[in-house]
Amino acid sequence: MPKLFDIKCPGECKTLPEGFWSAVDVWVKKPHVVNKRLCGVKETESEDVDTEALRFLLDDPVSELSHDDVLSFLTCRDSPEQTHEKEKPWSSSVRTFIPKINCYGTNMHKEVILKDFNRQQVTFLPFEEDAEGQVCLKRGNIYQIQLLHQDCDEWFLELHVLNPDAWFSDGVAYPRLPWLSADLLPKLVRWATEYKSSEFRSTLSLLPVEKYSIMYQQLKEKYKAMVKVWPEVTDPEKFVYEDVAIATYLLVLWSEERTEKGLTDRQSFVDLGCGNGLLVHILTNEGHPGKGIDVRRRKIWDMYGPQTLLEEKAITPSESFLFPGTDWLIGNHSDELTPWIPVIAARSSYCCRYFVLPCCFFDFYGKYQRRQCKKSQYKEYIDFITEISQVSGFNTEEDCLRIPSTKRVCLVGKSRSYQVSDEAQAEHRRAHYVQSRQIASWATVQGSDIRNDRDCCHGDAEINRTPGSSWGAGFQPRDRVEVIRNCAALPRDFVDAVVLRVANVLLGMSVDDDGGMSSTNWNRGGSLSVSEVAGLLEQETLQLLKKECGGLQTLLKNNHQVFRVEGGRVYIRDWRDKKSSRADAKKKPVAPGALKTRPCWFHDHHHQGCPLQAEHCAFAHGPEDLRPSTRPLKKIKSETI
Fold first, then answer.
1. Which one, of 270, 266, 330, 277, lies nearest residue 308 by Cα?
2. Which residues are 410's β-sheet partners?
3. Window from 113-127, 369-383, 555-569 with minimum mean pLDDT
4. Which of 157, 242, 306, 583 is least enclosed, having the fewest CB within 10 Å?
């Protein structure tokens, strides 16, 4: 059996051999995490097979000789007698590849996956199936991954190929051999040795992946132009493609629901806390009647046209905000509304369903307070929303979306756990639960200044309510006007004083021996942790910073001309150092219209001046070097607002 490559696992690894099979499952079930040209796979249920069943799987039960080389590849270390010691030595399944872009026409590319737990090896037998069901085994691309345990507790991962000279690669279903060796095998070792079970389900577990893949590519192509005309200050690529992915998920979910229930009409929806409204726009364009509601109008709303229904309105959980004629309620990063959405859906009608994608951690009447420390905060909050959903009477399902976000676990309530005749008892349970959460959080709410401490919502509880709306009393929607709390609105004199105080202390920690203007010995100062920097400031200053998102660390990062904050420590920035400057490839280059529009702090305050010559510095060396800003008017206006 030709061994193509091997790699040694880290010493004293306690996760093997179990971790090996966990890593194999990632490659088998989710190859798209490493092969970006795949959307995923569709896998059959596994079954134990023997040699005869294997011959049948290879689709040539008559000619035994034609598959002897494959059987020898599977059992080359053992004699035939040893192979038959176990009646069914292999666990077999078949996976069908789903490429992001279909380049195979009607042909399907599949693999028979044979797991041999005794030999600690997994073998991949690729084959193609045409529209008529005729199959063709790709002998040249049969490969095997094996875990070997040698002396002194050393573990090795080996890659074996049946016939390396006949290997064919297209970069999709058939990766290149160097890629298997240099990319896949090291990742398998890392997954195997860092093995830990995930807190959440795998992505798209509730949907047919092939349908999702096809629709996502169609919608991505259809709405990609939004990236070029995005008028908001948020990152267009992230928000556009994230909403395209969420819309794809909902459209496929609803399509499957129509098929399952025999529905003909497309489902209606209301998006609560719709934000930029793009998700509403896409769902409406794709034929679903619905609307979005948000407390604050966005600039992009005017671009959608009259067919996209968006309302600027504060949402308060009450009888005024029930939706009895709506099929689905949506909560996409709906913040303070998130825990209420299952309740509102349940009270709207027995047929109302919901989809929620939790983000910020809110309870019914304020910030969510952690109850456990054994789970991550995110997992605990997902479990909390699941609990609300179940108490509200939903059969609750969890899934993980494929979006560019760390908060990508969604909850879906498609059906009820009780009969419609039991609605009165179900409502009693809901009301009791909501009331219990209100009592539990009341002391916390009373003991904290919600207006100052809440990151994502601010508002006035005293708003107009209908007589039957008492079940939402105490809820605070966010303000119509977004409050800027990233230290950008702090008085300039205040910020300058903090910057000068911190910089002087850092510079005082390292002084050049010559005390002069030597460019090679330019004083970079020392470093302090953020907590040590906080100790330099007065209590009144810290209290003011505490009201800002991120506090002191945000102020330091905002003043990136002077400071570099890395690993929780604060340094003086040396603009000669490419790693320390905007030459960093991850950051956007300085716009030409922004050059020399602000004074150079080092030229004005550093005892040795700026380490760069004036012509090489992005900031102005003196009043004569200062230029008026020529940045686009749109961005300047958004900052002043």
1. 277
2. 399
3. 369-383
4. 306
